[in-house]
Amino acid sequence: MSQTSKSSTKPGDNKSQGELAWWQLSLLGIGCTIGTGYFLGSGIGIKMTGPSMVASFIIAAAGTYIVFHLLAKMTGEDPQEGSFCYYAGKAYGKWAGFGSGWNYWSSKILIMGSQLTALGLMSQFWFPKIPLWVFAAIYAVLAIAVVLLGTKGFDKVENILAVTKTAAIFMFIILAAVALFGWIHGGSDARPGWPDHWHAFAPGGYRGFWSSLIYAFYAYGGIETIGLMSMQLKKKEEASKAGSVMLIGLTIIYVISIGLVTFMVAHDAISEKESPFVTALKSYDLSFFPHVFNAAIVTAGFSTMTASLFAVTNLLVTLAKDCDAPKLFERKLKFRELPLPSLALATAGISVSIVTALLLPGKIYAYITTAAGIMQMYNWGFIIVSALKVLQLKAKDKTFAAIGLALLLAAVIGVVLESDIRWGFFISLGLSGIIAMVTLIMQKKIWNKQNAKKQA
């Protein structure tokens, strides 16, 4: 993660025997990735571009694969606990490891804010008069309680939630297919059907399609977490296989379900305040479905939000060990070995999202989700450029890396083109600017002095 890690840990030192088979890591990755970015955030993209959102998901899958492929190659050659943060430091120096770690921490805080807001919006489906920030606060407290259960308790809760949300997706696909065959009464008279020309395929035009890319990429967010978890594999060299199977599974699920949505309901009927899957089946004689599926979405969102909280809490401990965060955050409670100071800082971060939901209840979900997606692109971009420096890549992989960077850049530029979501870009830029300034101060005031002392 930093030069401290580099000097104290030689390549190959972290080849400890894990417990996971590659297929277990694939399933775990699917469970950790599917969340509100897919269940709700995809609706923002569908509203912008209609059926071409399917193509956005396929393009995003290609970009995501390139990122994971390069991360898996670095893990296979030199497995390290800090994963992409360590490789950034190894490639470009301490500033890169520091910046990469804090960028990831910030992106996860934004993702949790997005998920909290989504959970509030979904809960307002049943209780429309209760303010958004109240629900956000309630779910934040529940997530903290799950993390306080410790690692074993957390794993049990996450396994149950992962099965629930995956079952919900298959429930939608089956019901949608049955409805299209006419075996369920109802349906909208304005059902768009399969698009037969460009305007029907992308009613938002090229700009709408371009702007939708960020939400497709966001739905794959979590692939870097699998990089961190690959240290738990029995065979570290199978990390690439685990990621490939995970991405194939996710892409199939996403393409089929999003394709069904865009076939069943017009894109302008989609709202970011309601899941597109609920909207697609709302006009059918399935009075139970909106309630059951909405509950599944709440479950999915809570699952990924809790996983994100668990991840950032432990990430800050690793940053502290590598002297990239104050040593205070390395401390753990004797009870369940929990890093309480780290958890407290993460709690403070998501509290900002709760306050923002109080002040801007109308636009907050689109803004935070967009900003989280862009921060994710920054992090993935650093993974690619680190691989270019750390690995001795063949021409084919260098070409893949160039394509991956181009796709990530395209997703970020697409946000700037759309005025309704442009504020998300400015939020991500502001956070990245703060991290850059702190990194520069650390470089001049601390790291340069430490290097001078070593050379003296």
TrEMBL record:
It is a multi-pass membrane protein. Pfam families: AA_permease. The keyword Coiled coil does not apply. Keywords: Amino-acid transport, Membrane, Transmembrane, Transmembrane helix, Transport. The chain crosses the membrane at residues 20-41, 53-72, 130-150, 162-184, 204-223, 244-266, 292-317, 338-358, 364-388, 400-417, 423-442. InterPro entries: AA-permease/SLC12A_dom. It is found in: Membrane. Residues 26-403 form the Amino acid permease/ SLC12A domain. This is Amino acid permease.
